[in-house]
Amino acid sequence: DYDLLLTPTVPVPPFPVEQNYPTEIGGRKLDNYTTWFAPAFIVSLVALPAASVPAGMTSSGLPVGIQIIGPRCSEARILACAKLIAELNPIGRPPQAA
Protein backbone atom coordinates (compact mmCIF):
# COMPACT_ATOMS: atom_id res chain seq x y z
CA ASP A 1 0.00 0.00 0.00
CA TYR A 2 3.05 2.30 0.07
CA ASP A 3 4.99 3.72 -2.83
CA LEU A 4 8.36 3.70 -1.04
CA LEU A 5 9.84 2.84 2.33
CA LEU A 6 12.53 5.17 3.72
CA THR A 7 14.87 3.88 6.42
CA PRO A 8 18.30 4.78 7.76
CA THR A 9 20.97 3.10 5.64
CA VAL A 10 22.64 1.80 8.80
CA PRO A 11 21.68 2.30 12.47
CA VAL A 12 24.92 4.01 13.50
CA PRO A 13 26.68 7.21 12.49
CA PRO A 14 30.10 6.94 10.83
CA PHE A 15 32.73 5.57 13.20
CA PRO A 16 36.52 6.00 13.20
CA VAL A 17 38.29 4.31 10.30
CA GLU A 18 40.56 2.51 12.78
CA GLN A 19 37.49 0.74 14.23
CA ASN A 20 36.51 -2.35 12.20
CA TYR A 21 32.82 -2.19 13.17
CA PRO A 22 30.62 -0.89 15.98
CA THR A 23 30.32 -3.16 19.01
CA GLU A 24 27.05 -1.72 20.32
CA ILE A 25 24.07 0.29 19.18
CA GLY A 26 22.20 2.44 21.68
CA GLY A 27 23.93 0.69 24.57
CA ARG A 28 22.97 -2.77 23.29
CA LYS A 29 25.92 -5.09 22.60
CA LEU A 30 25.98 -6.57 19.08
CA ASP A 31 26.03 -10.35 18.69
CA ASN A 32 28.21 -10.39 15.58
CA TYR A 33 29.87 -8.31 12.90
CA THR A 34 26.92 -8.28 10.47
CA THR A 35 24.28 -7.01 12.91
CA TRP A 36 25.07 -3.35 12.37
CA PHE A 37 24.58 -3.41 8.58
CA ALA A 38 21.83 -6.05 8.40
CA PRO A 39 19.06 -3.55 7.47
CA ALA A 40 20.88 -2.79 4.22
CA PHE A 41 21.44 -6.36 3.03
CA ILE A 42 18.13 -7.88 4.21
CA VAL A 43 16.32 -5.82 1.58
CA SER A 44 18.46 -7.43 -1.12
CA LEU A 45 17.74 -10.91 0.23
CA VAL A 46 14.03 -10.44 -0.48
CA ALA A 47 14.84 -9.13 -3.98
CA LEU A 48 13.46 -5.61 -3.54
CA PRO A 49 15.13 -2.73 -5.35
CA ALA A 50 16.75 -0.14 -3.12
CA ALA A 51 19.15 2.77 -3.17
CA SER A 52 21.09 4.58 -0.50
CA VAL A 53 21.74 8.31 -0.70
CA PRO A 54 23.37 10.86 1.61
CA ALA A 55 20.58 12.55 3.57
CA GLY A 56 22.29 14.91 5.97
CA MET A 57 25.01 15.31 8.53
CA THR A 58 25.47 14.40 12.17
CA SER A 59 26.00 17.19 14.70
CA SER A 60 29.75 16.54 14.32
CA GLY A 61 29.59 17.00 10.53
CA LEU A 62 29.72 13.37 9.38
CA PRO A 63 27.39 12.17 6.59
CA VAL A 64 24.42 9.88 7.20
CA GLY A 65 22.40 8.05 4.59
CA ILE A 66 18.84 7.06 3.92
CA GLN A 67 17.82 3.83 2.22
CA ILE A 68 14.95 4.01 -0.26
CA ILE A 69 13.14 0.70 -0.78
CA GLY A 70 10.43 0.07 -3.33
CA PRO A 71 8.32 -2.75 -4.68
CA ARG A 72 9.62 -4.85 -7.54
CA CYS A 73 10.13 -2.94 -10.81
CA SER A 74 10.11 0.48 -9.10
CA GLU A 75 13.69 1.45 -9.87
CA ALA A 76 12.72 4.65 -11.69
CA ARG A 77 10.65 5.82 -8.70
CA ILE A 78 13.48 4.97 -6.28
CA LEU A 79 16.05 6.86 -8.36
CA ALA A 80 13.75 9.89 -8.67
CA CYS A 81 13.34 9.93 -4.89
CA ALA A 82 17.10 9.58 -4.39
CA LYS A 83 17.70 12.53 -6.71
CA LEU A 84 15.18 14.66 -4.79
CA ILE A 85 16.72 13.78 -1.42
CA ALA A 86 20.22 14.56 -2.69
CA GLU A 87 19.06 17.91 -4.09
CA LEU A 88 17.22 18.87 -0.88
CA ASN A 89 20.09 17.80 1.41
CA PRO A 90 23.37 18.52 -0.35
CA ILE A 91 26.22 17.45 1.90
CA GLY A 92 29.05 18.67 -0.30
CA ARG A 93 32.49 17.18 -0.31
CA PRO A 94 34.22 15.98 2.86
CA PRO A 95 36.77 18.31 4.44
CA GLN A 96 40.31 17.70 3.27
CA ALA A 97 42.65 16.05 5.76
CA ALA A 98 45.46 18.26 6.97
Explained architecture:
It is built from two helices and five strands; from the N terminus they run βββαββα. It has 98 residues and is an alpha+beta fold. The model has no long low-confidence stretch (mean pLDDT 88).
For the largest sheet, list the strands in their spatial order. Answer: 1-5-4
Q: Provide the low-confidence segments as ranges.
A: none
What does the average pLDDT come to?
Answer: 88
Q: C-alpha Rg, in Å?
A: 15 Å
In sequence order, what are the helices and strands, one letter per element? Answer: EEEHEEH
State the total count of DSSP E strands: 5
Largest sheet, if any? Answer: 3 strands, antiparallel
Q: What is the overall number of helices?
A: 2
Strand-residue fraction?
A: 15-25%
Ends apart, CA distance between termini? 49 Å
Structural class: alpha+beta
Roughly what percent helix? Answer: 10-25%
- Estimate the global geometry from the Cα principal axes: flat
Write the layout of secondary structure elements.
Layout: E1 5-8, E2 24-25, E3 28-29, H1 38-45, E4 50-57, E5 63-69, H2 75-88
Antiparallel strand pairs: 1-5, 2-3, 4-5
How would you concisely characterize the structure shown here?
The chain is an alpha+beta fold and 98 residues long.
Describe this protein with a few key phrases.
alpha+beta; two-stranded antiparallel ribbon; single chain; 2 helices; 98 residues; 5 strands; 22% helix; three-stranded antiparallel sheet
